[in-house]
Amino acid sequence: MSTEYAHDIVPEHAASRPAGSIALIISSAVMGVPCIILGASIGHDYGIARALMVIVLGCGATAVLAAAAAYAGVRSRRSAALLAKQTFGVRGSVVLNAAMAVALLGWFAVEMGFIGDMIAAGLKASFGVSIGRVPGTLLAGVVVCLITIRGIAVISRAPLVFLPLLVLLLSCVLFLTVRSLGATPLAMTPKALGSGVSAIIGSYIAGCLIMPDYSRFVRSGRAAMSATALALGPVYGLVLCTYALAAIATGQTLPTGILDGLGLPAVIGFVLPIGLLQNGVMCLYSSSLATSQLVPSAPVKTVAILLAVIGAGLAFSGASAFFVSFLVVLGIVFPPALALLICTGLDPSMRREGERTRPWSASRLITWSAGVASAISSEWLGFGLTGFSAIDGFIVAAAGGLLLVRIAARQSERIVVEA
After folding, report:
1. So what's the pLDDT on residue 329?
2. Using one digit for the tens of pLDDT, what is the confidence trace for 328-345?
3. Cross-strand pairs, 17
4. Residue 107 phi/psi, 5° resolution?
5. 392 with 384: CB under 8 angstroms?
6. Rounded to an integer, what distance in angstroms lies between the CA atom of residue 332 and that of residue 371?
7. Are 135 and 141 in contact (CB under 8 A)?
8. Cβ contacts of 410-417, under 8 Å, gap ≥ 24
9. pLDDT at position 267, please?
10. What residue intervals traverse the membrane (predicted)?
11. What sign for the dihedral angle of Cα 21, 27, 32, 37?
């Protein structure tokens, strides 16, 4: 991982990766078990018509946020952790980098736990063998760690192995769902559209936040935006729609129940964990980049191995049980931070300033807090701008971030004139 530029701006000669690699990475990531559960839950809660509306709105908003983050990564050539340092200052960035490192490590643990459960369930259903979650979790953790420590060159190629199998599985599920749709309709509890949209955004908000980690290696900002929007718009929407319909058709909301209800052999369930491997790689890689800003003397490769061990331990302890609560917290805390990182990445003065950062930026920390407060107000107090807590937090922080960038630009102009 010596060429990952964990502490440096990516030089122009190294920014040569095709934008299509981003689309492949994200497309593979959104076909895993968490998205199946989310899609099935949306189908269960909203029914066909309203579920489609929720998915279109949620995926559209997620695609816009991620595309803006990808563009900021190309413009700045910085990872999310370095953008955090530029945004909040050297000491202030510790707050966000620590939050990213912990959240991504927790996401990694959740996904490794899902893999362990899925492998154990598949073996028991197919061969009657009971092994528990530990062996599958351990195996997945080792594979993800080996891919991660090889760096972006290997990470960007991993979907070439994962994605074809997942596309085949998705196609089978969609075909069988269309044939059996309406056989067992689910009872629905009316829910506000805002809750479903916020859940979709929250499910991938950590991915939006770390998008610069991958887009900084792409030469064209427009190409990076298009690739990101394609994966988190049509592809992500298709995955959620497929499993929303499958939940309605089968009367099930869990992956194994959906596959059984569609008549797919239990052994097919072994394909599902493969999608989580890509998620795990992305989380471990970006968590390592964020953690390396907290302990700059430690090699990034060593940090990744240590985090993989800690994440596996969390998975053994049952971190996946907190999946839903975890998504709610991410959807409130990270959108305002993402807005500020985007404002910093798009600031024209970034290239001129290089790596010069202030030791502390209280104004941006206050803006972040204001965005979080707005999201909390929208989510639990019923008072907000749009009715979508993640969007409300993003808008408030973005408005404050753009104002701070303009103030800083005027101050710089004044200093130049006086000089």
Report:
1. 75
2. 677 788 999 999 999 988
3. 218
4. -65, -45
5. yes
6. 9
7. no
8. 412/349
9. 62
10. 21-42, 48-74, 94-115, 127-149, 161-181, 193-211, 223-246, 266-286, 298-316, 322-344, 365-383, 389-409
11. positive
366-406 residue pLDDT tens: 999 999 999 999 878 878 888 788 889 999 999 999 998 88
SS (H, E, C) 259-287: HHHCCCCHHHHHCHHHHHHHHHHHHHHHH
Locate all alpha helices (DSSP H) within 262-388, ordered by sequence. 272-294, 300-316, 323-346, 350-353, 362-376
Compute CA distances 66 → 72, 210, 245, whole Å: 10, 9, 26
Are the CB atoms for 81 and 296 separated by under 8 Å? Answer: no
DSSP string, 176-239: HHHHHTTSSPPP-----HHHHHHHHHHHHHHHHHTTHHHHTTBS-HHHHHHHHHHIIIIIHHHH
DSSP 9: P
124-130: long-range contacts (C-beta < 8 A, 24 or more apart)? 125/256, 125/266, 125/269, 126/265, 126/266, 126/267
Q: Cβ distance 178 to 36 under 8 Å?
A: no
- Give the 3-state secondary structure of 41-63: HHHHHHHHHHHHHHHHHHHHHHH
Question: At which residue do the structure tokens 């497929």 appear?
Answer: 242
Domain boundaries, the chain: 12-321
Residue 414 has a pLDDT of 65
Q: What is the pLDDT of residue 325?
A: 64
Cβ(184)–Cβ(43) under 8 Å?
A: no
| Sequence-ordered list of residues with C-beta below 8 angstroms from that of 66, at least 6 positions apart, any chain | 26, 204, 207, 208, 211, 228, 229, 232
Question: Looking at the chain, how many residues does it have?
Answer: 419
Question: CA-based diameter of the chain, in Å?
Answer: 79
Model pLDDT, residue 338:
95
Question: How many Å is the Cα radius of gyration of the chain?
Answer: 21
Q: What is the pTM of this model?
A: 0.88
The whole-number pLDDT of residue 352 equals 46
Cα-based torsion angle of the residue sequence 35, 234, 329, 114 in order, rounded to the nearest 10 degrees: 20
Task: Give me the amino acid identity at 261.
Answer: G
Question: Which residues have a Cβ under 8 Å from the Cβ of 382 and sit 6 or more positions away?
Answer: none
CATH class of 12-321: mainly alpha
Give the pLDDT confidence score for residue 188 in this predicted structure.
55
Which stretches of the chain drop beneath a pLDDT of 50?
A: 186-187, 352-355
